[in-house]
Amino acid sequence: MSLSEVEFAYFFPAFFLLYWVLPRRAAVQNWALCAGSLFFYATWNLKLVPLFVASTLVDFAILRGFEKFAAPQDGSPLPTDERNQKRRRALLTLGIVHNLTALAAFKYAGFFADSFNQAFGTSLPVLRLALPVGLSFYTMGRIGVLIDTYYERLTPVRSLGVWFSFVSFFPQLIAGPIGRGSELFEQYENPRKLTADAFLKAAFELATGFVLKVYIAAQVGTELVDPVFAAPGTFTRKAHLLAVVGYAGQVFADFAGYSLIAIGVGRLLGITLPDNFQFPFLSKSLPEVWRRWHMTLNRWLFDYIYGPMVTGDSFMRGRIGAGFLVVMVASGLWHGAAFTYLLWGLLHGLGLLAHHRYDLAYKGLCRKNRVWVERRRSTFYQVAGWMVTTVFFILTLIPFRAPTLAAAGKFARGLWAGGNLPNPPGTFHPYLALLLVVIYHVGALPVFEGFRKRASATPLAMKGLALGAVIVFLMLFAPVGAGTFIYAQF
Amino acid sequence: MPEVESAPRRWRDVALFCCICVATVVAADLGLRRVSAPRYVREVQDALAEYKHEDPTVLVLGSSHARTFTYMDAVARSRSNGSTRVMGVPLEWGKFTSYEWVLQERLRPFIEEVENGKRKRSSLKHAILLTAWWDACGKDGDPPVFNLPSRAWAFEHFARDVADRGVTAHNRNYVTARWLEHWHGSILVSARGHDHLVSAVRDLVRPMSAEGKQKQWETHLTNWQHLIEGGAPTMGYEPELAAADRILAYFQSIGVDVTLMLYPLMPVTLTDLAKETVLRPFSKLMRQVAEKRGVRFIDATFDHNVVDSDFQPDFDHLTPDGHNKLANWLLDTKLSFLLETQPAGGQP
Asked: Using CA atoms, how far apart are residues B4 and A457, in angstroms rounded to an integer?
């Protein structure tokens, strides 16, 4: 089951009613969420439910262990404290290894065995296991809590209901947003209530999410993107350009839309999930892209990999550039076990490294002469920064979308040389969809703040009319089967 | 969009918001129904629902073409004073393998249902397997027929498949079809995935010229002709032929008179190339299948009374008048034996 597919239209209203009819006690609400989430998970793969439950219980036991073996106070000479510290470290290691082993076995074993066989002509057995849905997402959420609890940034969770709700919460189970214990545990520990404001906000998020997901992503994908990526090099340069620009719009609309739907559904259940996208195509530098695009993944990567790596005691200490490379390669591999994702991550790592060097050099200039500070604030500089960032981001999507490195190369050549085949004939919808992506971003510029205020102050009756019109539009023009979700595969 | 602060709302506001939203959708739906009304066509589920209360003398299993036999039922009942009752079971876009699934999983329990030690429905005398060239086409690796979950599955089949594979694009068709059923009165829901509503709205806003319509018709015709011609390389797919054979064998095993019939096709869509490479080879194949089992074979592909204007703009289905015209003609000629009180007996 996916949040944007028809079966959810049966599941959610029933669950929503049950959830709010039940007594407003945190424990009751949590176990209702757990039951609903397990049902949701089981619709993807019933056979993997025991594995999911077992691994959740193992992590819970580890978290309880952190409480049992309290962390020593700084400088404590007591031998029990030292023993506790060793036990805590062992528990953390166990937790991380246990989670990463599942990830490695299901997601990467096949890829590495395949690659090894190809490189060395061996015939290692290649595992082809069904990937548990949302594995990459919930593994990160769990590891984050284990690390935060170990370092005492988080109080060890006491309730199994809270832990299970955090891990399995169905709106974010398949594709995030990747929540943190620090922002979600408190919500699960307290009874939830639904306010009229939250309801209206959720309605707005759901409407925006559905337009992005089932109209924009679907229309752009089927007409502009898929045919050209299926036969790279055969279409004209213009078709290649439209395909890669279209893909940028598609992958944004697909994931940002799904995230908004997840956030809206979460809000309807009284849970506020973190934002995942913040108008990424307004970014004027690569680091800004990663603060605006798939925000919860990137803050996880930077907080739990990059931060400890470049500030810890290892040889990586202070090697900021190398840290960028490692973290972006990890991001690439997180998206999938394939060389195309590896290349994508590498390109972004190099991009961040180049930006870091450039930034250092520029700051040097600023220190020498304040005129460089002013230049950086100029419209020309901002526009140039936006253009370079956007072009780089879009071009690097070629290996991200292409099935193989060879296909990516062929597509890149097509972008340069092009073939003879014109764009397949189609409708105006993909172009309207791309225009909506542009409007969505442009509308968030500070210059339109007055307009946003006026829109926000529109009477609710008008907003109801607008939502009704959006629903009618989607029913008329969203393609059937548009609920299929690109990011579910990651 | 970035948030803008506003005063807290009350649930009364939410109720107003929701009412206006729903009213907008309902108003749009009612308005659009005037442009293009929802279309109802008989499906497997309708036939199964009828079968519960019926005891047909003739069972017709086939694709959407089997809908002609619903019209024939009315004609046959009136001509025979109710002694000939025809049950058409149409599986849209079906093939022999999917007809076999419908027969074994959905129809057989009705056919063989026993009450007080006897068959509950004892009138069945004739079975017709209705086919067209498409049914014998296929290749290894073809996706499963989506029409089975949407049009023929019961909840148990869906639940079993989900327990086995989880919710997939294939079994999701079952849920989608149920969703459409629940909202069948809404044109916005029932027209999803079809072009007719949007086309009707477009025609209303900016009507197409006569030349434009003619050009569109010609393009559609050419595409349809190519579709038929394209059947040649995949014609005679063994698993489909084997399924056809098993269907005939089953009907023979329960002692009914069996007919394998090729349905009429719209004359203008049949090019010489299609006739030579697809339709005649298909007829030959089907004759062999029928002869192997010793069942009656009727080929109405070219030999029928309907003309181009009796077909709908989709080039495949008859209009209601076309159905009636064909049903009457078939009962007068090729299928006159259905009106006889005794089975005519299988003969090739």
From this structure: 9
